[in-house]
Amino acid sequence: MKLQATGTKGWFVHQKVVVVFIAFMIPLVAMNIWVNYKEMSFTKKTITDSAVAGASFYANQLDKELYFIRSQQLQFVNDKDLQKLSFQGSTLDEYALFELINQTKDRLSAIQYSSELIVDAGVYVKEIGKTISSIGGISDTPNYESEFIVHLAGLTPKPSFYQKDGRLFFIESENNSGIISYIEISTSRLREALRQITTLYQESEVFLGSKTLGHVLSTAKDQNVIIPLLAQLEEGNKGNANPSRVIDIAGASYFVMTCPVGSLNLSLVMYVDHNEITRPLRQYSFWFYALFVIAIVVLLLYSYSLNIMIHRPLSKLTKAFQMMETDNLNLVIESKTRDEFHYLFHSFNRMAFRLKRSIEENYEHKIAIQQSELKQLQSQINPHFLYNSFFNIYMMCKVGDSDGAAELSQKLGSYYQYITRNGSDEVPLYKEYQHALDYCEIQCIRFSNRIRYEHEEIPDYAKTVTVPRLIIQPIVENVFEHAFEDGMMNGILSMTADYQEGVVRIKVEDNGRLLTDETLQSLQEQLRDESGQQEKTGLMNVNNRLQLKYGAGSGLFVSRSQHGGLRAELMIRTQNERK
Asked: PANTHER family of this UniProt entry (predicted)?
């Protein structure tokens, strides 16, 4: 018989090993996840800090450049030659005036060439009615340039810079607007300076602006993001000194860095798609999750290999022992490996074979004992029963009761034919039952004045059930010998037989008055004694035969009858019979 793996309640060994393995792995995996998370956070922070530092550097450089331009403008406005033109220009002779104007123009040219961001540097001098420009030269007023500059200078409140028609100016006035100095900043060159910041990240954009003025200058072609971005920046800047953050706009996340440009009273803002920031980390995230999946797969393969190498062999061995508990010894565990389980399986097969052979030898010995006890029962025929029966036949013949003598002779012959027959040890239940009834009939003829018997017919479905020979008559004989030996009148013996669900039940009861509780208890103890040392009476022999043949749960059980005497119940569990 080949064995397959079977499940049992509780935890299997391989499950415990896997659980312990997981218990040790979880802290390591958790620590690995934590370390990787920290490393990715640190790397991401390093990248963003580097971007913030780069943007801040460019913003500071730009701010310094613009402050330098503003400082030169302020120095120029307070220049003594320009002040002299403003206060004494109309009173100077032509040569002195020409000399001061040229000196002023040279100073403006020097300012223009001091920075690549300056397109033009000029001044309007109301006293002499002229505008002096590093590009446009000297022009009499009124002219377009003077009117344009005077108009911007008249705006209130005074802004930090002036913007008009796409042009950007720094304007400073002195002497009640008698002197208006203007410096035009190149928007193209300023935009180019902003583009240098976008080189920190591909697909990043930079703009100068504020919530009030909006975006003043931008490198972005699509400017739909700038307005909501400025609004959120203004809200977020309240009580927040962090120059960088992540902002969600229209379903997209942007990493935003802000740097103040004090010279313009604006903010320099660089924004880039957040995915662009994390792109260098994606490959690490991919490999991290890939390794995590690989760890799960390794764990599953480890569990499966344990199931094959440990659980299945152990399950086979467990099932073999379970089947052995049911007295099934036709077991052979096959092993295809040459490991420790091969040795265990081989040892188990040898043990099962030897145990089977030992049980067979022991069983054959018990069968021999059973046969001996059956012979003993047959040899225990009371000769007085025979003598008394012949005497009863003689007396019936003397009184002329030929019918009674014939019936008793027929019953007596049938009785002795049954008990002396050496045929099969098992007979149909109805024959064994009828033999007991024949014995009762003979005894009741002898004691017709004071003993009678009652019985129920065996159900048809139970008649053909086979039972051992001579298991009922010894119990009935015990009743006549011990229950009614005090000469009681109206003695009654009751007998029934039934068969249900593989169990044969035969009950024999009497109303004898001689059975004491002590005697009943002693008899019960003798029937329960498994040592085999009790006295070999008819009742003990019947009990031993049934237990040897049918195993636990079968045998003879005695108790107090409802009639007051002894109730003996034979129980045969035929499904326990050895094959």
From this structure: SENSOR HISTIDINE KINASE YPDA
β-strand pairing of 179-185 with 167-174: antiparallel
DSSP states of 160-192 as a string? SSEEETTEEEEEEEETTTTEEEEEEE-HHHHHH
Instruction: Name the β-bridge partners of 132.
Output: 123, 138
Please tell me the predicted confidence (pLDDT) of residue 579: 45
Note the pLDDT tens digit of each residue in 15-29: 777 787 778 778 877
> What topology does CATH give the domain 424-573?
Heat Shock Protein 90 (3.30.565)
Q: Is pLDDT at 338 greater than 90 in this prediction?
A: no
The encoded tokens of residue 215 equal 């975006």
Residue closest to 568 by CA, chosen among 578, 555, 558? 558
Give the whole-angstrom CA distance, residue 579 versus residue 577: 6
Structural contact between residues 429 and 507, judged by C-beta atoms closer than 8 angstroms: no
Question: Which pLDDT score is estimated for 515?
Answer: 87
Structure tokens at 574: 């035929």
Span 221-240, average pLDDT: 69
Handedness of CA 547, 553, 558, 562 (dihedral sign): negative
Q: What number of CA atoms fall less than 13 Å from residue 174's CA on the CB side? A: 19
For residue 509, give the H/E element and its range: strand 503-510
**The residue type at 11:** W
Q: What is the residue extent of each domain of the chain? A: 43-188, 329-377, 424-573
Q: Name the CA dihedral angle for 373, 377, 380, 383, rounded to a multiple of 10 degrees.
A: -150
pTM of the model: 0.49
